[in-house]
Amino acid sequence: MKTPRTVSLPTPFEANITDPPFVSYPRPQMVRDSYLCLNGLWDFSLLSPRGEEDLGKILVPYPPESRLSGIGRQIGRRETMIYRRAFLIPDGFRKGKGRILLHFGAVDQYAAVLLNGHLVASHTGGYLPFEMDITDYLLDGENELRVEAHDRLDTDLPYGKQTHKRGGMWYTPVSGIWQTVWLECVPEHYIRSLRITPTLEGVTVEVEGGEEKKVLTLCDTAYPFTGESITLTLENPHLWTPEDPYLYHFTLQSGADTVRSYFALRTVGITEVKGADGACKSVMTLNGKPYFFHGLLDQGYFSDGIFLPATEEGYKNDILQMKSCGFNMLRKHIKVEPEIFYYLCDKLGMVVFQDMVNSGKYHFLLDTALPTIGLRSGITHRASEQRRKYFFECAEGMMDQLYNHPSVCYYTIFNEGWGQFDADAVYRRLKAKDRTRIFDATSGWFKCKKSDVESDHVYFKKVKLKPVQGRPMVLSEFGGYSCKIAGHAFNLDKTYGYRYFDDPQAFEDALVALYEDEIVPQIGQGLCATVLTQVSDVEDETNGLLTYDRALLKVDAPRMKELAAELQTAFDKTFRTK
Fold first, then answer.
1. CA separation (Å) from 25 to 60, 126, 179, 182, 233?
2. Which string of DSSP letters, residue by residue, matches 335-363?
3. CATH code for the domain in which residue 82 is found
4. What pLDDT was estimated at residue 96?
5. Contact 81, 149 (CB under 8 A)
6. Residue numbers of the domain that contains 240
7. Which of these, 316, 199, 202, lies nearest to 250 by C-alpha position?
8. What pLDDT, in 10s, does the model give residues 212-222?
């Protein structure tokens, strides 16, 4: 079989890569003045049964499979990635007898970290940050940092859409370091974490670590407190919405430690509303009011850095381009992003429906073919104790990491049955951990008893949903229309989508007709959230509003914004919001 021809697609953001890349503080909700970025050129080699192969330099944090990394090749299951670099602790960085922490944003899938020949940490899982105290292993002069990573694409671990045999809806895998590596200096008793819970009138800030006495400063007013938490009621509270994404910035001081952070006043929930037709309908709310979540599927893949854009502007561009088309929500699909993405959603005003990352083997017949022809219940998978352990470590770790972000309003646990196990029990466990957000237990099909919403995917039929009493109706995937643009397509020979158009105008007209003919009537029946597939093309998939290289928006933004207004009018009429 002839191998399809693929091409490398540069993006508009590559010309602005900084030295080092992704130099901004990687944890926007706990910022310290002490910060040393270790991104940049590292020595890189591969260790295999054949010996060690020196591949020269790799540009961290781009994964080695990406062109921007300087390596641009897939890593084998039996190959271990060896990263090396030397660094010095700058004068004045270590204040007094402070401790030095080394942070990794993410390393896929297994990592061992050595400093000056000492093993200082090991980590399993490819999507979450980890840190270690390296103070006792530092030298006065030059220090040598070595990371040994390997990635077998172990399906007991969450892995998303990565596969060694990419094609169709499966994508090029990533390996090794793919987020920022950095150092910070902290005092002996330092603030380890914040947990921020807003209401519509104020906020509670819980603090782990630090000294007993603390001071929170907000709007030039100092609020001293002792212990582990403080609750503030705000005068004239300014609520967060995608249309008005207002953030409150504050500092927290505890002994010798000071961090800067922010919060927003925002709640999400579910309520019953008597609709215009007199029937009672369940609807999701934002800040206590019915809200129409008009969104798109967001895979988070880029033609230059695969799991990363060339710069943070890549994230910002995706958010703003979709806002310009009238969308107010992105469903982050089976991937956890660096925190800078969620910060930009907080700041720019974009709701995030966040997926858990699937594990377990995909089964085409059970997970796609049978549900497509109508078998959408009574099927589940078994999970070993090890897979369960890793699933919960990733899911609950992600929930901890994202808890403070106001943009994150909704979690999807299982998608289309991939790796789905004990969905009711999993829902109960995760819902108990965070009752401030909405949970979609089984997005698409293979329904179970427990879920906050009734969530369906419709691709090959007309959109016609069945309301379920007590659950808001969510169309969590639909569309998938394909429009391949010459000169901006990754695969020259193959194209993947669910309906095909040769020209952007026909593509746009079909999307508008889909919304007007099929979605608007469903809003009249109680539909309160939609997720169009998708933000951008991804490799073979050409069903994005943006091309994979982010060079072209295939639709007319003003027309799409007018369409969004039509959907909002239908929603307002259905739920009598005005």
1. 15, 21, 12, 9, 30
2. ----HHHHHHHHHHT-EEEEEPPP-S---
3. 2.60.120.260
4. 67
5. yes
6. 191-263
7. 202
8. 999 999 999 99
**When comparing pLDDT for 324 and 4, which is higher?**
324
Write down the pLDDT at residue 364. Answer: 76
Number of domains in the chain: 2
Here the tokens at position 52 are 């060690």
Phi and psi dihedrals of 229, rounded to 5? Answer: -155, 160
Contact status, residue 438 vs residue 453, Cβ threshold 8 Å: yes
DSSP percent split of the chain into helix, strand, coil, nearest 5:
20, 35, 45
CA distance 307 to 160: 11
Give the CATH number, domain containing residue 244.
Answer: 2.60.40.10
Same domain, yes or no: 177 and 232:
no
Q: Residues 258, 134: one domain?
A: no
In angstroms, the CA 511 to CA 254 distance is 54
Closest CA to 527 of 489, 484, 471, 577: 471
CB neighbours of 20 closer than 8 A, spacing ≥ 6?
37, 38, 39, 40, 60
pLDDT tens for residues 459-486? Answer: 989 999 988 989 999 999 999 999 999 9
Name the one residue in this structure whose structure tokens are 């429906």: 353
DSSP state of 365: I
Residues, the chain, total?
578
Q: Give the pairing of strands 130-133 and 221-226.
A: unpaired
Mean pLDDT across the stretch 343-368? 92
Give the mean pLDDT of 138-144.
95
Give CA–CA dist 343/345, Å, rounded: 5
**Selection from 110, 2, 14 nearest residue 302 by Cα:** 14
Query: Across all residues in the chain, what is the average pLDDT?
Result: 95
- So what's the pLDDT on residue 378? 67
- Each residue's pLDDT tens digit, 71-122: 999 999 999 999 999 999 998 888 767 899 999 999 999 999 999 999 999 9
**Neighbouring-strand partners of residue 458:** 478
Could you report the per-residue pLDDT of 533-558, keeping only the tens digit for each?
999 999 999 999 999 999 999 999 99
Do 441 and 426 form a contact (C-beta atoms < 8 A)?
yes
Q: How many CB atoms are closer than 10 A to CB 137?
A: 17
CA distance 292 to 470: 17
Distance CA 343, CA 404 (A): 10
Q: Which residue has the tokens 């602790």?
A: 89
